[in-house]
Amino acid sequence: MIRLYSIIAARISEKTNLMSKLTKAKVKRLAALVGLDLDKARAETITSRLDAVLEELEAIPDERLAGVEPLPVFLVEPPSSDE
Amino acid sequence: MSETPLHYRSLAGLAALMRRREASPVEVTRAFLDRAEALNERLGAYILIDRKGALASARRAEGAIASGGAVGLLAGVPLAIKDIIHVRGVRTTSGSRVMAEYVAPENSTLVERLRASGAVLLGKLNLSEFAIGGTIEHPFGTPRNPWDLTRATGGSSSGSAVAVAAGLCAAALGSDTGGSIRGPASFCGIVGIRPTYSRVTRHGVVPMSWSYDTIGPMTRTVEDCALMLQAIAGHDPRDRTSSKLPVPDYREALRKGIRGVRLGLPREMFDFEGLEAETKCAVERAVRVLKELGTSTRSVSLPTSPWGGAIFLATADVDAAAYHREWLTTRGDDYDWSTRVRLESASLVPATAYIRAQRARSLVRSELLTALSETDVLALPTTSSPAPTLEEGTGKPGGYYQDRKRDLGSRRYMSAPSVSGLPAITVPCGFTKSGLPIGLQFIGRPFDEATLFRVAHAYEQAAGLYHKHPPL
Q1: CATH number listed for the domain at residues B7-467
Q2: Which among B111, B273, B299, B325 has the fewest CB atoms less than 10 Å away?
Q3: A2 — contact with chain B (CB < 8 Å)?
Q4: By CA distance, what is A66's nearest residue in B?
Q5: Chain segment B286-343, per-residue pLDDT in tens
């Protein structure tokens, strides 16, 4: 079952990257949507920075993430033995 | 009495001297204030030195000790706090022009607990803007590494590390989101602990990331670190995330020795190509010392940890971007260029990437817990290299933080416990040929700070590096 999930996840991932190839123009448009007006230097740096982070995240093997759910906030008590 | 100057005495030693009435809290406080005022322009450690308030607290401590009654754990000890921690009626600048005039309406729980334990607060310490790291222009002075004034201190608890290393306070509080205690502590040759997430209250502290932030002590010895954590740890009804688990006696743990303790050595942390040779060598030498003290070692794997940097930036920074959203659009020019770019980048992280990073975060935690089920603590370098130059250590284009491979790769050392909410401590383990400190890091199980203190203390006592101080 997990293997099947991994194959499906890997195929989905091939088709839909976290973000299509970033360009400075796209970053400026996206920034405008959230109320940020970027000058040339910031747009360049943000494009390169964001590109690097997204590329790294995409490099995490999908197989490894199969079946793993996000855990945005950790429990405040010690983990149970089956964690 | 040893010949160690007063300003380099340990917190524990100073507290004992004052309890025995062999030193006066007022005189000790005055000595630290004089030294801080004399060196602060060179070192950029303090944003605010509160001479009047500190001396008033010292007089109260002196009175309490003289009365012969019970006094707190830190009675009369001069401490300082990172300037994201609120003190009622005092400015909390967060190291930023954005909050330069903000006056805190109430005390943080941390300040209340330090005062309840009898500590004397000398002032508020410099930091990277909003505890984010990479600041290019510090509005309240540039923190400089006391071991080499041309070197960076690391961020974000830069002033805390400088003040402790240079003897401008007996110990300090810092905050650690992605390494902001451990990095500066390592670069400046002191001890610093990131406690388990939720072990220490965050009430009255300006946040960077709600699901990552921890507050912890930065000290010259491991025992001091244990004492200070003892004073601040424990449930706080004003912080809903704070744990209700009882706080153990950390100092007691120091007496147990480490024979039979199992150390895990993560392969991904020792085999990283960006790990500098002198750092690797010092950490491997430290591991040999630990073996001689009776520990066993085994290799463990944390396969997702190399992505720790990207996971951190795609989650913690997004929290920060959410917190700063309004100011970014209305007061963008008041931010340091590097902070602004980092927050604006995080504002544009796609939701799918954020969730992918949160899933990977679960995975890193799971891998760490698996490794810690076969071992008691993990030992690894704190950073991949010693302190960079002041120029390299900023977010300037072309600087250390802009070098994608170096930055993301080297973040793995401190990101792994951060993304996992686990405790980690750094202790000095050597110096480079040019005299820069190198840090050894231990990662522990959730809420097992006691074992971290135990192992770090045993190593520290064997290595004896706590006797070395910067050439100021």
Answers
A1: 3.90.1300.10
A2: B273
A3: no
A4: B359
A5: 999 999 999 999 999 999 999 999 999 999 999 999 999 999 999 999 999 999 999 9
